[in-house]
Structure prediction request, 317 residues.
Amino acid sequence: MILEKIKEKFGEAVLETHSFRGDDTAIIVKEKIVEAAKFLKEDPELDFNVLIDLTAVDCLKLDKPHRFEVVYHFFSVAKKHRVRLKVPLTEEDPVVDTLTGLWPIANWFEREAWDMFGVKFQGHPNLQRILMYDEFQGHPLRKDYPVSKRQPLVGPQN
Amino acid sequence: MIEKNTDTLSMGFFTTKVNDIVGWARKYSIFQYPFITACCGMEYMSVACSHYDIDRFGAGFPRFSPRQSDVLFVVGTISHKIAPVLKRIYEQMTEPKWVVAFGVCTCTGGFYDNYATVQGIDTIIPVDIYIPGCPPRPENVLDGLMKLQEKIQHSKQAI
Prediction:
């Protein structure tokens, strides 16, 4: 029902859907993400009032046409159902619009995704590192970040 | 002539004994500073509370100011982000001071061989006693503490 409604509403913008073992997932183009999230939140039948998680995936070694995926998990407390949205992003332009206007928690989630993966969120009020220190170079959860690279603030450098 | 010899001997006897007495006093009046960042903290609490009772060894009184303490207990994973704070706290402690690395994360980084974690606090500050274990059992900690007391007793006391 959820995926049908999303497909009906956004048509071509929905690239793919699947529902493996009841996990409803829709892959959607990045231009439509704010609109889609707003639809999920405000449609009375869907009523997704919680943004449970927002994170990213680096698909460098996954044999996919895009480099990153931003993953959104929504939950409805009243209806007790869930849905996952995914947004593919290219390496050259890892930018997607922010959801901070809809869910305040998106602020910190998006800062984390920026910190770890270097995905930018357009319109974010304060897109700074949240976990690592300001002096840190690069984004540690990118698959091309060297495994043994350390950036100590004090003590021996490697 | 004989009298003079006895004098020198007794004076020598006196100085070695002063060293022993100061060492004895210091090892039983450890004011510790617990620098707790992670799950080893639970084990530290268990050592500090009545079941294992670290007070039996004269180390029962945690001071939450580095300026008033003489043993720094580094308990839990140290990340690169917190490392400058740890170093600063060590520098704020007055001499004589000792450092205990509590748990395998502080000893070597443990299984956190990654971009965020300091690979052993001895890359930042000098360490006197390593207590490995993930987390170490309270008996293990008490064993480490007794080894530290031995070390304090047998070192040359700066007075």
